[in-house]
Amino acid sequence: MIFNASIALNWILFLALFPIAFFWFRRAWRILFRRDFSEVALKGGMPPANPARFAPYTLAINAIGGIVIVFVIFGVLTGTMDFDAWTATAGVTIWFKFFADYILSRHAHPIVPKRKKLEETGPTAPK
């Protein structure tokens, strides 16, 4: 086996699966057992007004993604998954997780028109 850039990138991808699975399972653990909703549907680093409403979806996204990544790790280590299968599965899972988190965060933080915002808060300067 000749060491080249392709082999190095494949090893980096495989080794990156371990911390990815750890962080995703840790987020799921915090939501499920500790009831910590501080990382639920973040937009600009801020959770939504009611994070408990979106916690089950974030839990599912992180748990399913973590399970698939652990499945890929075991598949590579046992030799049951060939190169194309594990790289495709890992890549699709990572991208799916990013897109699902993005969609959930945008759904949890709806766009409020400025006119409605002004009606709720009232005028800021006295007239």
Could you name the ranges where pLDDT drops below 50 across 5 or more consecutive residues?
none
Distance between the termini: 78 Å
Helix content: over 70%
Give the radius of gyration: 20 Å
Summarize the topology.
Elements: H1 5-32, H2 51-78, H3 83-108, H4 114-121
Helix pairs in contact: 1-2, 2-3
Protein architecture, described:
- With 127 residues, the protein is an all-alpha fold.
- 71% of the residues lie in helices and 0% in strands.
- The mean pLDDT is 90.
- The chain is built from 4 helices and no strands.
- Helix 2 (51-78) packs antiparallel against helix 3.
Core attributes:
127 residues; mainly alpha; 0% strand
Q: Could you give a short description of this structure?
A:
The protein has 127 residues and is mostly helical.
